[in-house]
């Protein structure tokens, strides 16, 4: 990903927001930062032109999200971490 020091504060916020979630909608971002959907759209267009993200209908995602891995690869990815995750019965959580 290109360096982000040339981005405006709003563009940096949008990019971090999408990085944290993988995908974000225009409406949700506009509401969260208090600007119009059109303003967010313009920022997304600028970020896409600089290869930071890709726009989709109604939102945007990171460019790396264009490539989906297969089910078999998902099963073997991060296997050690998945095996460490403890399953706690609902009765023990107090829920």
UniProtKB/TrEMBL annotation:
Domain of life: Bacteria
A Pfam family the protein falls into: HTH_DeoR
Gene3D superfamilies (alphabetical): Winged helix-like DNA-binding domain superfamily/Winged helix DNA-binding domain
Alphabetized UniProt keyword annotations: Transcription, Transcription regulation
Taxonomic classification: Bacteria, Pseudomonadati, Pseudomonadota, Alphaproteobacteria, Hyphomicrobiales
Protein name as it appears in the record: DeoR/GlpR family transcriptional regulator of sugar metabolism
Ranges of residues in domain HTH deoR-type: 7-62
Coiled coil: none
């Amino acid at each position: 990903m290109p360096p982000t020091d040339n981005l405006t504060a709003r563009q940096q916020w949008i990019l971090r927001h999408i990085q944290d979630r993988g995908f974000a909608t225009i409406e949700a971002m506009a509401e969260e930062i208090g600007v119009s959907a059109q303003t967010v759209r313009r920022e997304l267009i600028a970020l896409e032109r600089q290869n930071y993200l890709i726009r989709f209908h109604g939102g945007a995602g990171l460019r790396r999200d264009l490539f989906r891995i297969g089910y078999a690869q998902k099963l073997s990815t991060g296997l050690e971490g998945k095996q460490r995750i403890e399953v706690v019965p609902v009765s023990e959580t107090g829920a």
